[in-house]
Design a protein that fits this description.
Helix content of chain A: 40-55%
CATH topology of the largest domain in chain A: BirA Bifunctional Protein, domain 2
Strand order of the largest sheet of chain B: 27-30-31-35-34-33-32
CATH architecture of the largest domain in chain B: 3-Layer(bba) Sandwich
Distance between the termini of chain A: 86 Å
Oligomer: heterodimer
Number of strands of chain B: 39
Shape of chain B: elongated
Structural class of chain B: alpha+beta
CATH superfamily of the largest domain in chain B: Phenylalanyl-trna Synthetase, Chain B, domain 3
Distance between the termini of chain B: 90 Å
Strand content of chain B: 25-35%
Number of domains of chain A: 2
Number of strands of chain A: 9
């Protein structure tokens, strides 16, 4: 019997080694361990053995059952492993094929940058004001210390609707409206469209955008103006950005300044973008002229303020390297998709 | 304003300052430099050299080998010149030097001997014979005095001029002058400044008051009018030094008398005019308003018709000069002029500005008057002109000045409050600095009365803020510290409308739409292109448009959208989905007497892979994202812009808020478009109907039951009709209802369509089959009864 059992061991090992799939494994299990299997048959014949042999043979039979069962599990695992490997191998895709996208559109580049600028200022506690684009001469010039025949009107060729109504040439027109509406402290920006009678070319447009800023409170100083603009420039161009104020003249601010930012491309060393200057002019600013405060119903002895105005197109052109202003209003999708 | 730098030397001494350094310092103290250039001779790199040795060339019987000290370096130069001796100072063209006629000097060998440069004659440097004293027409130029070796010859001879161009802001007409810029230069660099005395000898005898007469009939437009008379005029070109300065400053030299007036204008910023006395009828000047229709031919040969708003300088009979703008041809200075009346006047700036604009004449003179000039300057300028006449020998000055002065001489007095200036600027600037800075600009400070007394030429200084600016710019804006805004916790941010507008844009961008920006004005023709009705043609018009095609403020933004669609289509961009939040301008009355209503509209536009339902879906998703409720669509009333069968009006709670649809084929054709889609939505309606805060609904624990309902209906029956019936029958149990198929074609009878809807029901408990069947039966009966549907 011992020989029979040993044969079962070797037969079963051979059968399982040869088994190619789950069915063959099951067939081997039935053939060797099943109710009518070979091992069962051997065990049935145990009765014929002597009492001394019985435990010996029984132990051997159990050993062989365990061996066959172990071999079956091993084979099953081996087959499963193979099957998974096969499945994985067949599931390889070309990952370089294009992704399937829900393509979003884009904000217009002017508004994309405007949103950025707006969020910098709202973060500093500014509100956002608006004013009419078709405006009274009074708000656009007169109340801004620029009476009729003031030479500063020459540099802003104005579209007129009537002799008292015009297309605003500057968002500064919102200053007086803001002061009329709310008393200090005032801390606002006013982005919007402005108009000047310039024929469109690479650097001129009869329609463009400005962002006006106005702060009025007790004890506002020129140092506050510098601090605010410095914070803005650092938020826009990075912590290393610096500003430079040059004295200038605007009728509605005194003192006035033109403000340069250190070139964000070369950091101030001089390059093509800043034309070797290291600085790029980005805005005009100054302390609100006492006549303007008075026109807004605010006592300049008690309050002071600063204002600034920044050209959005220019900012966007510098930021993205756009070299022709007309592209913003042509709206060619090949352009719009780049932002 | 172009400033030849050497001109500054008349008033101050500035040493060891490079051009770049000068320009930067001036810009930072408030006189903005546009740029600078070196003008004059084309000769470069020719320096002074001293001949150290001279020996005969071994291979030549006429050439000399010299060694020349060119300032710290000794070079060997071979020359054929015979007039040179050791110890002489000569012009040396070093290797790389440029000479007239495009000649560049290179190092070389002459008969085997190295020669590193060239000794030059005056002709080789471009001078005419006799210009440089003592120069030999047949040899090398030998200088008669010592010059620093190595220095640039042409610069030292005044042939080269560094010209700095300033951008002068309109508040500083005093800086449209050499004297003004010299004053700024002196204050910027802290050096002394003085104007040489102006003295007139009056050699002619006689008295101007006996010869000429001036009447000012319009003192309101002419605060001051002054004249001096010059007799025995000797017309000639002005001297070379004067011509050089004029040319460098951008003024063409004409003759000694005319050049003097221009020279004084550049020097003092005060325009002048010279009349030929013999052509002034009655030898008199009348300053008056023109008569309507009166005529004058100006110096440039152009005839002008005048009106009574214009100030004229007239003689006894006729206008001879447009005051402050341009002289008349009739009294022009000629080669034959014998006596000259110099005018130096102050005119009202607004008057000059209006007249210059009306006549289309902008001159150096008018652009100065327009900014406002100092009436006190006229006498100095007048005398300076006469001084130059005497210096140039151009004539003899008659005794006396005619001075009709109606100008206001009240000085400006501003309280001097250093503490406030410090507080305003936010920098710790001491009183002493303030006083000396102001005084360096010739702004008086009375420290006893604590008063600032601006000089009459600084009409821009009117209040304390102006004084603060003078102090701040000389202190240096860069030295002012940066201070953050105080008052922490100020509430900033966007308001509700601004937040919702951002949400609208981000919804559309998320749906694949690109934002565009179009002009606010347009051509009236665009209204024809969209076959616009009466309402859209009530426009706000621009009085002075750039052209017809930009002459009306838009009343609709679809024209801009259509133009952009067409442009992209022409550029072969396959698909387009665009939006714009645009402002349209609706007049409140015509003609316009008050500000128009500025309405914000949202326009949508698409072509290519897009149809009506893409656009409708975008509008629905947009309104859904805003939380707008009560949105319905219905077939649009006839509208010339839209396809009559493929357009819908949009309603929120039964109020019309917009329209979407296919572009009417006629309009599409006008724009060269094929099939395109447009939408217009009223932004104010979207914003006001946007939902407030979202309230959560508990999730039902009971299962949903879904049922498909397929039916045949007449073509005329709309999906909205079917939905309404199903909703009514389903009541509160109907949770979702969706269209999943509409079909027409084979197996469907003519005039009918097959519509299939999917409905989901859910109750407050698990719905039984009985309950579902009851709802379905009710639904089917209603569909049959109300809509004549046949269930399939």
């Amino acid at each position: 019997m011992k020989e029979q059992l040993e044969k079962i061991r070797s037969d079963a090992a051979a059968a399982l080694a040869a088994a190619a799939d789950a069915e063959a494994v099951e067939a081997a299990r039935v053939a060797f361990l099943g109710k009518k299997g070979q091992l069962t048959a051997v065990l049935r014949g145990m009765g014929a053995l002597s009492p001394e042999q019985r435990p010996v043979v029984g132990q051997l039979a159990n050993e062989i059952r365990a061996f066959v069962e172990g071999e079956i599990e091993k084979k099953k695992a081996e087959l499963a492993e193979k099957a998974r490997a096969k499945k994985l191998a067949s599931g390889v895709i070309d990952v370089t094929m294009p992704g399937r996208r829900n393509k979003a559109g884009r904000l217009h580049p002017l508004n994309k940058v405007l949103e950025e600028v707006t969020s910098i200022f709202t973060g500093m506690g500014f509100t956002v004001a608006e004013g009419p684009e078709v405006e009274l001469d009074y708000y656009n010039f007169e109340a801004l210390n620029t009476p009729a025949d003031h030479p500063a009107r020459d540099s802003q060729d104005t579209f007129y609707i009537t002799d008292k109504i015009l297309l605003r040439t500057q968002t500064s027109s919102v200053q007086i409206r803001a002061m009329e509406k709310s008393k200090p402290p005032i801390r606002m920006i006013a982005p919007g469209r402005v108009f000047r009678s310039d024929t469109a070319d690479a650097t001129h447009s009869p329609v463009f955008h400005q962002i006006e800023g106005l702060v009025v409170d007790k004890g506002i100083t020129m140092a506050n103006l510098k601090g605010t603009l410095e914070t803005f420039v650092k938020a826009l161009y990075g912590p290393d950005a610096r500003i430079r104020l040059r004295p200038h003249h605007f009728p509605f601010t005194e003192p006035s300044a033109e403000v340069d930012a250190s070139c964000f491309v070369c950091g101030g060393k001089g390059c093509g973008v800043c034309k070797g200057e290291g600085w790029i002019e980005i805005l005009g600013a100054g302390m609100v002229h006492p006549n303007v405060l008075r026109a807004g119903g605010i006592d300049p002895e008690e309050y002071s303020g600063f204002a600034f105005g920044l050209g959005l197109e220019r900012l966007v052109m510098i930021k993205y390297g756009v070299d022709d202003l007309r592209l913003f209003y042509e709206n060619d999708l090949r352009f719009l998709k780049q932002f | 304003m172009k400033l030849p730098l050497s001109w500054l030397n008349d008033y101050l001494t500035l040493e060891n300052t490079g051009v770049k350094e000068y320009c930067d310092a001036m810009t930072l103290s408030g006189s903005k430099v546009e740029g600078w250039s070196v003008e004059g001779s084309e000769v470069e790199n020719v320096v002074f050299g001293k001949i150290l040795t001279k020996v005969r060339h071994t291979n030549s019987d006429h050439m000399w080998i010299t060694t020349v000290d060119v300032g710290g370096e000794v070079v060997q130069i071979v020359t054929g010149a015979q007039n040179i001796e050791v110890g002489q100072t000569v012009p040396v063209a070093l290797p790389g030097a440029k000479l007239p006629g495009g000649i560049t000097i290179k190092p070389g060998k002459l008969r085997g001997e190295p020669s590193n440069g060239m000794l030059c004659s005056h002709q080789e440097l471009g001078f005419e014979d006799g210009v440089i004293p003592g120069s030999d027409p047949n040899g090398i130029l030998i200088f008669q005095k010592e010059y620093p070796l190595g220095a640039d010859v042409m610069e030292a001879l005044g042939e080269k001029e560094t010209v700095v161009e300033f951008e002068i802001t309109p508040n500083r007409p005093d800086c449209l002058s050499v004297v003004g810029l010299a004053r700024e230069t002196a204050a910027t660099f802290g050096v002394p400044f003085s104007i040489p005395p102006v003295e007139v000898k009056e050699q002619a005898g006689g008295d101007i008051n006996d010869i000429a007469k001036v009447t000012v009939e319009a003192p309101d437009l002419c605060p001051r009018y002054s004249c001096r008379l010059v007799k025995n005029i000797r017309m000639a070109p002005s001297p070379e030094w004067m011509q050089k300065r004029l040319r460098a400053a951008g003024v063409r030299p004409i003759s000694n008398i005319v050049d003097i007036t221009n020279y004084v204008m550049l020097e003092y910023g005060q325009p002048m005019h010279a009349f030929d006395l013999d052509f002034l009828e009655g030898r008199e000047i009348v300053v008056r308003r023109a008569k309507n229709g009166e005529e004058i031919v100006t110096l440039d040969g152009q005839p002008h018709t005048l009106d009574d708003s214009m100030l004229m300088i007239c003689d006894g009979k006729k206008p001879v000069c447009v005051a402050g703008v341009m002289g008349g041809a009739n009294s022009e200075i000629k080669d034959t002029t014998k006596a000259v009346l110099f005018e130096c006047a102050n005119f009202l700036r607004g008057s000059v500005r209006r007249t210059a604009r009306k006549l289309g004449l902008r001159t150096e003179s008018s652009s100065r008057y327009e900014k406002g000039l100092d009436p006190n300057m006229v006498i100095t300028a007048l005398n300076r002109a006469c001084q130059l006449v005497e210096e140039l020998g151009a004539g003899e000055v008659v005794h006396g000045i005619i001075d009709v002065d109606n100008s206001d001489h009240t000085p400006t007095v501003i309280p001097f409050r250093p503490e406030r200036i410090r507080a305003f600027i936010g920098a710790d600037i001491d009183d002493g600095f303030m006083v000396s800075a102001l005084r360096s600009l010739e702004i008086g400070v009375d420290v006893d009365k604590m008063q600032v007394l601006p000089p009459s030429f600084r009409m821009d200084i009117e209040c304390e803020a102006d004084v603060a600016e003078e102090v701040a710019r000389l202190y240096g804006y860069d030295r002012i510290p940066s201070a953050p805004l105080g008052g922490a916790g100020a509430m900033g941010g966007l308001n509700r409308e601004q937040r919702l507008t951002a949400k609208i844009k981000s919804s559309l961008v998320g749906q694949g739409y690109y934002e565009i920006q179009t002009y606010s004005f347009t051509s009236p023709k665009t209204l024809d292109m969209i076959n616009a009705g009466e309402e859209l043609r009530k426009t706000v018009n621009i009085l002075n448009p750039l052209g017809e095609d930009a002459s009306i403020m838009r009343t609709t933004a679809v024209t801009g959208m259509l133009e952009v669609l067409a442009r992209n289509y022409n550029h072969k961009n396959k698909n387009a989905r665009l939006f714009e939040t645009a402002t349209v301008y609706i007049p409140k009355s015509l003609p316009v007497t008050e500000l128009p209503e500025e309405k914000k509209v949202l326009t949508l536009g698409a072509y290519g892979a897009a149809d009506f339902f893409d656009l409708k879906g975008a509008a629905e998703e947009l309104m859904d994202s805003l939380g707008v409720e009560g949105v319905t669509f219905s077939a649009a009333a006839p509208n010339p812009i839209y396809h009559p069968g493929k357009s819908a009006e949009i309603y929120i709670n039964k109020k019309k808020v917009g329209i979407i649809g296919e572009v009417h084929p006629d309009v599409a054709e006008n724009y060269g478009l094929d099939e395109a889609y447009l939408g217009e939505l009223d932004m104010a309606a979207l914003l006001s109907n946007a939902g407030g805060d979202v309230r959560y609904k508990p999730l039902s624990r009971f299962p949903a039951v879904s049922r498909d309902i397929a039916m045949l209906v007449d073509d005329a029956v709309t999906v909205a009709d079917i939905e309404a019936v199903i909703r009514r029958a389903g009541g509160s149990l109907l949770e979702e209802l969706e269209l999943f198929d509409v079909y027409k074609g084979s197996q469907i009878p003519e005039g009918k369509k097959s519509v299939a809807m999917s409905a989901v029901y859910r109750g407050e408990k698990t719905l039984t089959d009985d309950e579902i069947n009851k709802i379905m039966n009710k639904t089917v009966r209603s569909l049959e009864h109300v809509l004549g549907a046949t269930l399939r």
